[in-house]
Amino acid sequence: MKLYSLVFTFNKKNCLILALLALLLPLLLTACGGEDPTATPTTAVSDTTASTAQTTAAQTTTATTSSTASSGTTAAAPTAAVSPGSTTSAAQTAPAATSTPADPAGTPFAVSTAGVPASPTPTGALNPDQQILNMAGPDVNTFDPALSSDTGTSFVMRQLYSGLVTLDKNLNVVPDLAAKMPDLSAGSTLYTFKLREGAKFQSGKEITAEDFKYSFERASDPKLIAPDGASALPAANYMTDIVGVREKLDGKANDISGVQVKDKYTLEIKLTAARPQFLAKLTYNVFFVVNKDAVSKGFEQVDGSGPFKLLEYKRDQFLKLGRNDNFYLGAPRLSQVNLALGANAANSTVLYDQGKLDLAGVGASAEVERALDPGGTLNKELVVKPQLNLFYLAFNTHARPFDDIKVRQAFSLVVDRPRIARAMFENKVKPASGILPPGLPGYTGNPGPLSYDIGKARDLIAQSSYRSPANLPHITLYSTGDPLAGVLQATYKEAFGINLEVRNYDLREFQSGLSQKQFQMYLYGWTADYPDPENFLRSLLGNSSPYNESGYNSNQFEDLMKQGDQQTDMNRRLEYYAQAERLALGDAPLLPIYHEVSYTLVKPYVRGLEITPAGVWSLKDVYILR
Amino acid sequence: MFDQLRQRFFTEAGRNKPARVEPLLPSQVGELNLNWTSHFNTPALREHIEEFSGLSLRVSGHSDYIIGDNWRRRREIGQITETRTRYQRLLLVDQLVAEFARRNYKLVILGHDEQNDHQEFYTDAGFEQLERIVYYEKSDMRILPLAEFPPVSMETYRHTPAQVNDLLAVDNAAFPWLWWNSQAELNFYQAQEGVTIYLAYRKMPDGTRQPVGYFGFTLYDRWAHLDRLAVVPGLQGQRVGAYQLGYAIGLMERRGAQRVTLSTQLNNTRSQALYEGFGFHRVKSLEYSLVGKWLHSPSAG
Lengths: 626, 301
Description:
The complex is a heterodimer of chains A (626) and B (301). By secondary structure, chain A is an alpha+beta fold. Chain A has two domains: 2-301 and 599-624, Dipeptide-binding Protein, Domain 1 (Dipeptide-binding Protein, domain 1), CATH 3.90.76.10; 389-595, Dipeptide-binding Protein, domain 3 (Roll). In chain A, 34% of the residues lie in helices and 15% in strands. Chain A has 22 helices and 22 strands. In chain A, the strands form six sheets. Chain A has a six-stranded mixed beta sheet with strand order 15-19-14-18-16-17, with helices on both faces. In chain A, helix 1 runs parallel beside helix 5, helix 2 (15-31) crosses helix 6 and helix 20 (533-541) runs parallel beside helix 22 (570-587). Chain A starts with a helix and ends with a strand. Chain B is an alpha+beta fold. Chain B has two domains: 8-126, Aminopeptidase (3-Layer(aba) Sandwich); 136-289, 3-Layer(aba) Sandwich (Aminopeptidase), CATH 3.40.630.30. Helix content of chain B is 29%, strand content 29%. Chain B has helices spanning 8-12, 42-51, 89-102, 112-117, 119-124, 161-174, 183-190, 240-254, 269-277, and strands at 2-3, 21-23, 56-59, 65-70, 77-84, 107-110, 128-138, 152-156, 195-203, 209-219, 223-231, 259-265, 281-282, 288-294. Chain A binds chain B through residues 138, 148-154, 284-285, 348-349, 361-367, 370, 389, 391, 422-426, 428-429, 479-484, 487, 490-491, 493-494, 507, 511, 523-527, 529, 547, 596, 615, and chain B through 1-10, 12-17, 33, 35-37.
């Protein structure tokens, strides 16, 4: 919060200087022969991957938290600077200027100066036979970007597809299939995108504005059935700022009136109102472009526009990606990516030790302790990154006994979150007090209205409609196999003397039960799609969100969120969101438990990998140098 | 987007740590992460370690620990009451078993939760089922009048030195070695709330009397659990047990019990026949096994 306002005042006062800088910098660069990628700030940083750009093991978690905080603020700062801008032209230049300082707006995109940071220049000769990356990960739920809603699937989507804009390693919005940042007009509600000319799908077909219009309309088509039978589409969470999407989702329109093709390479998107976070939202999977011809044949053969194409997939076993030679930023250096899934992904640290995996997420394991030792050999291979995520316990507000707010509050009050972080995770995670993670704009660090208090919890049960824990109905807790479920079982046994049943499902079953709102209480997590409080608050608790599985529905919450949306002043906007967060915490539809820190071991020969606080990596610039 | 909770924290933490085992001292209890499912809180564990000194161990520098003591206050039977460790269970159990052996214990038995929670581990470590315990319940207090009363009289146990000797003599004669009560156990048991013990005596022709059996039960809220029913070997099958059982049920009923429960060994068919004759039925869901490991030849018992 403090850091943020500092940056903000700086921007406001020096708006002119920033705009000037933005105009001059690309000119200067071109004058100096700006082909050299190391001359641009973005590439200079990404060249030094595991040593400086990311926090290595030697640095402390606190240090990384503050670095995330500042990256979060820079991501949000441009949007704050945009809105108060008195003229449209100021609003147009500011975002492009601050988020991509090296972007020579208006000039054709050479690879090295594109808004998307170019691949770092290898410091030695690459052996083309060695460009294979082996890693492990969670399984994918779908290959349809319009239906992707979890991190495991999103990671694969990010390699196979792309959209108009994307997030760079600091979570700033940068152009991707768009040739430059869009022009804003009509009070910042009309976005005009110029597409990169000559960009192709993997099959070789050129990508045009029509493809985007088709993709957006397809993603919000109620006839698009999710594999788990859910009728609620991700579009309902991400696309509804666009004029006409609601009508399309409700089946009242055939097309999205707010998305217009001006010519082959020009796309206009009209919003219902000014939304400073819209461009960030636009980076999400649901806005990725798909090829109509390929989609009509299903997703057995993926034809995306991302740096990699799908070679082979065996559910629960493995997934293989191959280089897309048609990729518009130049083919990636990796020729193949092998992703071990399911049982093959278990014991990933052992496989990493044996050299069978080139990178492995290790969590708070013994390897982390080993690697955190500055004298240890693994120390240089560990990348620590606090994540913009939240792991939480949710209550179904429409099911007994959690339709009673006092029961929800009581069940929240007995969970000792600092103790869970300490005893279960050995302090390798950050106990949560609110919904928003540290580092996200709007994070307050306030303790929240419901902190550990067993006596108060027992009183609340006595005051509830059930009067005594003995009268509570049988309660089942659902999870995807997390040991935290067992800890909660013991917690509730101790606090209330009740026997909670725990059921563990695999992710697909879990997701399916979840979207049918069958679960009484469940453990799940949310990772930021873009660094804005709305992404957490409205996605998880908004009454029109397809992800609001707890069924929370509060008019007061909706009002506060709406008032927040309408603010042009970023600080005031965050204040409304903070009020909404506090209200929801008191109503207790969910209990935030912890925020994760990612610990990833990366072999020293893996170069160009950026591990971001949003958890989903791009392999576009990765290469192997032995 | 949704994100799965991470399992790896639990499954991998602590693996491959170099480990050295040392006795857990009362002063170190505060350093442990006594978790939710522990039998102990910090002062209780401190007291426990003071009582059973040297029978609790920890991995040096870590919060992995094992708690041992005497099974049912028997000096020759050890118990593994609780372990809290991710990867050092084998090391901790081996060391504690070795310590029991050094102290000439004959047998080590697993605490109930310990056995339930780590069944496969203990099977692999050479622990075996010693007894199968069956559970009986009688859901009314009706008893059939006995056709023939044995010539015994019942006497309330008042913890006099003579009674203590009589009871222990009957106990050790009537039960197999494993189930013997030690004097410490008896003292502990009779001091528990709700416990009633009666001794059975037979009048001898020479005017003296001989202890021939005893029973003990605990009265709970509207039900009673028969903890012990003993008959000396020479008189078994002569309805001394039936007489005592009828006597006990009558007492329980007068004190407000509406049902009776008990447990016995699966291989003790004679006692099962007696209970079934009294209208007890087996409750299979409450049966369990007693699992342990002999440190010397079983015949030593």
